[in-house]
């Protein structure tokens, strides 16, 4: 029995004919859209971006240490005692303190804040590259499964018609019971493939939404077709991995981390350097109620040093009371009355065994630097190994595509011959389904090879620290893909009906 068998299977697999499922919000996306959405919705990137302001604030805080510290103070004293004369004292003054020398500690603190900001920038770049890679891999998986699902869905529609015709032939006595059961078995095989494909696409879509941080009720519809829109180029063997590794943000971060640790170590190693603070004051006081009227002014020099675990604080204070009686507030001794003229006091405090942890902190800092250097060397080896693995995967995927192309074309030729035999009644339905199943599997292998190659290029770009476009291995152009499937489609290879009718 000659069936009017029109097989335009592969044309229906293109993205343009993907049907919208059910209801709900539909979001049309391509490879650029999904990356932009994922980066925009990323909680990690937002968190890293927010932290940038912290390091700018730290740097500004440290810069303020170079500026003089200004303060206004008021001191009042009132005594109303029994059997003694009442007394009252008021003092208002402005004070100024300036850091003169700190052994470079503040400079290194500013440098450390700058390095931490650069580290934060590298963290952002690393997170951004990782998110872009993962979402592109999820999108490729989604495209591949979407293509396979659409292919099997269209095949099932045709098989249903073939099944009906087979049942009619069985009732008419043209098919035996064995042939009917054999056909049923082949149909169940393809149904099983369709079921697995449907489950795979749902899982791939959920994974893609997770990578994009999208609600699960948003339905995604890809604009791209993995075999129709991607142009692949043969990988080059002239990639200088060592040169590219220098651009890796992970290595840049490691070097910045070592530099920051060394900066912090400079602060620890300079513990013995003195800190010198110069200060002064001007104000007025009065031995009575406000307003104040007697001028007072003076200066002070503060010195902080450390020798081993012993710390020292010394100060030199000198002032002038223009008239009346003033009160000089001496730390540790309380207020002291001074008369008209010059007054001064000096103090030195040695705190023995005050900082017993200084040597441990220095040693811990040295260990941290050594660990960071060792980790950097290990990171270089790891990154180089991952890059070579990506290259190997890339070359393997290219060979898989080459073999899959040949296999697909051979199965397409066999399927095409089987179609002609089936149309002329020289082949059973179950035998035709054998050829069709093999063609479906070979197309699935080709699709898998394409997605693996594109994924390998993305991983290679990630491991080299460059953009995907810079490698010149994959280019996306609508309906201009260079897969054998797309080339045969454009040539009308699968339009069997016209050739059969001509005969």
From TrEMBL:
Q: What Gene Ontology cellular-component terms does the record carry?
A: cell outer membrane; efflux pump complex
What InterPro entries does this protein's entry cite?
Answer: TolC-like
Note the Gene3D superfamilies from the entry.
Outer membrane efflux proteins (OEP)
Keywords on record: Cell outer membrane, Membrane, Transmembrane, Transmembrane beta strand
Give the Gene Ontology MF terms in alphabetical order: efflux transmembrane transporter activity; porin activity
- Taxonomic superkingdom: Bacteria
Coiled coil ranges? none
Protein location: Cell outer membrane
Give the protein name, as stated in the record. Answer: TolC family protein
């Amino acid at each position: 029995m000659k069936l009017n068998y029109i097989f335009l299977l592969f044309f229906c697999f293109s993205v343009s004919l993907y049907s919208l499922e059910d209801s709900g919000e539909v979001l049309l996306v391509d490879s650029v859209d999904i990356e932009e959405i994922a980066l925009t919705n990323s909680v990690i990137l937002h968190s890293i971006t927010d932290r940038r302001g912290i390091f700018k604030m730290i740097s500004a805080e440290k810069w303020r240490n170079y500026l003089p510290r200004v303060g206004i103070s008021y001191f009042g004293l009132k005594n109303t005692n029994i059997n003694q004369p009442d007394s009252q004292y008021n003092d208002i003054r402005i004070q100024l303190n300036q850091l003169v020398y700190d052994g470079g500690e503040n400079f290194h603190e500013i440098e450390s804040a700058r390095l931490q900001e650069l580290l934060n920038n590298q963290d952002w770049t690393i997170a951004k590259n990782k998110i872009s890679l993962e979402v592109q891999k999820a999108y490729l998986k989604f495209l591949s499964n979407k293509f396979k699902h659409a292919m099997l869905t269209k095949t099932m529609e045709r098989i249903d018609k073939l099944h009906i015709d087979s049942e009619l032939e069985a009732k008419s006595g043209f098919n035996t019971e064995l042939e009917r059961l054999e056909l049923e078995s082949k149909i169940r095989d393809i149904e099983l493939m369709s079921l697995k494909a449907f489950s795979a696409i749902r899982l791939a879509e959920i994974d893609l939404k997770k990578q994009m941080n999208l609600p699960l009720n948003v339905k995604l519809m890809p604009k791209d077709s993995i075999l129709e829109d991607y142009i692949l180029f043969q990988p080059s063997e002239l990639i200088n991995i060592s040169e590219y590794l220098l651009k890796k943000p992970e290595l840049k971060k490691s070097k910045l981390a070592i530099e920051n640790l060394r900066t912090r170590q400079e602060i620890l190693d300079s513990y013995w350097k003195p800190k010198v603070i110069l200060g002064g004051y001007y104000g007025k006081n009065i031995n009575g109620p406000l307003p104040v009227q007697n001028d007072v002014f003076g200066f002070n020099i503060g010195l902080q040093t450390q020798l081993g675990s012993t710390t020292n604080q010394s100060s030199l204070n000198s002032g002038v009371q223009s008239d009346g009686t003033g009160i000089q507030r001496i730390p540790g001794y309380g207020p002291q009355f001074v008369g008209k003229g010059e007054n001064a006091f000096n103090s030195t405090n040695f705190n023995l065994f005050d900082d017993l942890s200084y040597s441990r902190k220095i040693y811990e800092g040295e260990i941290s630097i050594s660990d960071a250097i060792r980790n950097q060397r290990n990171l270089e080896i790891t990154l180089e190994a991952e890059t070579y693995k990506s290259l190997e995967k890339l070359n393997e995927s290219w060979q898989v595509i080459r073999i899959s192309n040949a296999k697909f074309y051979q199965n397409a030729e066999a399927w095409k011959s089987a179609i002609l035999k089936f149309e002329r009644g020289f082949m059973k339905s179950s035998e035709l389904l054998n050829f069709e199943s093999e063609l479906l599997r070979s197309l699935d292998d080709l699709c898998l090879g394409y997605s693996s190659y594109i994924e390998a290029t993305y991983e290679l770009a990630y491991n080299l620290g460059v953009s995907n476009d810079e490698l010149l291995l994959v280019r996306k152009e609508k309906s201009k893909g260079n897969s054998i499937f797309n080339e045969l489609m454009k040539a009308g290879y699968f339009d069997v009906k016209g050739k059969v009718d001509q005969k």
